[in-house]
Design brief:
Chain B: It comes from Rheinheimera lutimaris. The complex is a heterodimer of chains A (219) and B (233). Chain A has five helices and 13 strands. Chain A has 219 residues and is of the alpha/beta class. Chain A has a single domain, classed as 3-Layer(aba) Sandwich (Glutaconate Coenzyme A-transferase). In chain A, helix 3 packs parallel to helix 4. Chain B has a domain of 163 residues: 3-Layer(aba) Sandwich (Glutaconate Coenzyme A-transferase), CATH 3.40.1080.10. Chain B contains five helices and eleven strands, in the order H-E-H-E-E-H-E-H-E-E-E-E-E-H-E-E. In chain B, strands 1, 2, 3, 4, 8, 9, 10 and 11 form an eight-stranded mixed β-sheet that branches. A three-stranded antiparallel β-sheet of chain B has the order 5-7-6. Chain B starts with 10 loop residues before the first helix and ends in a 15-residue tail after the last strand. Classes of the chains: A alpha/beta (219), B alpha/beta (233). The interface between A and B is large, with 53 and 56 residues.
Amino acid sequence: MALSREQVAMRVAQELQDGYYVNLGIGIPTLVANYVPAGIEVMLQSENGLLGMGPYPTEDEIDADMINAGKETVTAIKGAAIFSSAESFAMIRGGHVDLTVLGAFEVDQNGNIASWMIPGKLVKGMGGAMDLVAGAQNIVVTMTHADKYGNSKLLTDCTLPLTGVGCVKKIVTDLAVLEVRNGAFHLLERAPGISVEEIKQKTAGKLVIEGDIPEMVFN
Amino acid sequence: MAGFNKVVHSYEDAMAGLQDGMTVIAGGFGLCGIPEGLIAQIKKMKTKDLTVVSNNCGVDGFGLGILLEDRQIKKMVASYVGENALFEKQLLSGELEVELTPQGTLAEKMRAGGAGIPAFFTATGYGTPVAEGKETREIDGRHYVLEPAITGDFAIVRAWKADRYGNLVFRHTSMNFNPMAATAGKITVAEVEEIVEPGELEPSQIHTPGIYVQRVIKGNFEKRIERRMVRQG
């Protein structure tokens, strides 16, 4: 069966390593914070200027001056640092953030990503997404493998205006985990009960399948 | 405003000199850390054809959103503008021009503007619509876009504490774009929660040194919350 949003987040969380600085985008990426594996410590970066983002506040802790990049009230963990937007993006552009997780409309086999603009629809803006995809060491994209009409979102070439070029390294969809390298999607894992055939059928870009493809394992 | 006493006592004095067609850089992220009273004063002055540079444009009826009500903004430079219906309407009708700018590029444009750096190369936006019409260059095998700096006729910022020298300290994540905005205005006005005596701010803990700030006013803030999220305690 295709993975739920929570399961996609759980699988992305397996990419986290001890000591990582991580920026999580809005939507499924935000849920990843709930599944940090036991025994490892990661520091969450929020691009409005917070390193060491904690959980939502209790009613007593709410402070209008303490928000995350989604403009939600939030807390800072002990040991957090707060700084300006320029400092925040210096961390991002300077390659100091180890992992960025974000959603997308489309990804292509050359690692291009389109996530911010659908021509003909009102464009709200890219926020920090273009900076993040240009700057992070490692970018994981979460999205559904195909749209609700069954059209693949893993393409030969993105059709929508790009957010970044040649930057996506890994994709976790509701059907599969794939790596992007040498101009192709390399299938690494499939969701429990999902056949390689189905993934093949729903991947429009070049797909490389080598050997037996294991099912994802959730603890 | 004698010597280094930058404190003014009315919003009229705080925004004196603002004229039609000027560029105003505003600190804040969403509704967090915005100079509420200075924005209200711009509305009161009915200044028109403004270019406003800020990460967002407030919401309907609050923050920079109130400057849309009388069509005071001609052009908005921002990274994300999804939060107000009036913005959408004026954008679609062609009354309002918008220049969408990646958030980090926007912060760096202000920083560079304040630091006398006319433009900078960044990888952000290369190969995207943001790079269209801009100079690009390959440096050590990577592609970069040349982005011009931004300066403003006015910069309006919100700080927590100030002294009469204009030294500023920001509170929590309300810092955001405020320090860079403060450097990039010909006239920088800081609306603050508290004015303290010189010496009360620890010199090494000052976020914005007073040299960047021309006017300081004590404000009263509603501090509206955009997305109130709570966990059970």
